[in-house]
Amino acid sequence: MESSPCTVTPVVTKFSAAARTLDPFGISDRAGAAIVSAALQDVGIISESNVLNVVDRNKIQRERTKVRSTLLSQSVIKEYDHDQFGLYFDGRKDRTLSMEDNRKKVIIEEHISLIKEPGSDCIGHVSVNFRRAQIIGNHIYSFLVMC
After folding, report:
1. Which positions ≥6 away from 31 have C-beta within 8 Å?
2. In terms of C-beta density within 10 A (0-12 exposed, 13-18 middle, 19 or more buried), how is residue 140 classed?
3. Regarding predicted confidence, which is higher, 11 or 35?
4. How far is residue 34's CA from residue 24's CA, in Å, rounded to a whole number?
5. Residue 25 burial (CB count, 10 A)
6. Among residues 112, 113, 108, 98, which one has the least CA distance to residue 130?
7. Crossing angle of the two packed helices 29-43 and 57-73, in degrees rounded to 10
8. Residues 6+ apart with CB under 8 A from 75
9. Residue 79 phi/psi, 5° resolution?
10. Using CA atoms, how far apart are residues 117 and 80, in angstroms rounded to an integer?
11. How far apart are CA 30 and CA 56, in angstroms?
12. Which terminus of the chain, N or C, has less C-beta within 10 A?
């Protein structure tokens, strides 16, 4: 009597890494389920004959709930760092009219608010008239050094 070779495919039940990865990027449960199912199909865990491990949005949603409750119960979040700064781009822009070479020129300055968390204590604001990241970073750094 010969036994036929049997292939055993593991049943995937934990998606905590996927849930932790989907949250920061704002990916929905449905899109996350499609991504995880496609990855499992590429690896060979899901096939035409074996659809036990297909991931639906409810599995992702349950795992996200578990991961979030685990993160909230950890002491890392409970011991809040009191020296954190928040940068808020409030969209406020000043338009200043100036004259250069007998022509009118509008200078647009963007405001960036510097807030200390928790408590939302306002430290100050920086006005930047160029939108390049390096210039904005230099203005914020020089403001924080002067404080």
Report:
1. none
2. middle
3. 35
4. 17
5. 8
6. 108
7. 110
8. none
9. -85, 85
10. 10
11. 7
12. N
Among candidate residues 36, 44, 38, the one with its CA nearest the CA of residue 9: 44
Q: Which amino acid is at 73?
A: S
Tens of pLDDT, residue by residue over 80-123, are 455 665 666 666 677 778 888 888 888 777 777 777 666 666 66
User: In this structure, what token pair is assigned to residue 66?
Assistant: 């578990």
Other Cβ atoms within 10 Å of 18 Cβ, number: 22
CB-based contact 84:116 (threshold 8 Å): yes
Q: Give the integer Cα–Cα distance in Å for 76 and 100.
A: 55
Average pLDDT, the chain: 74
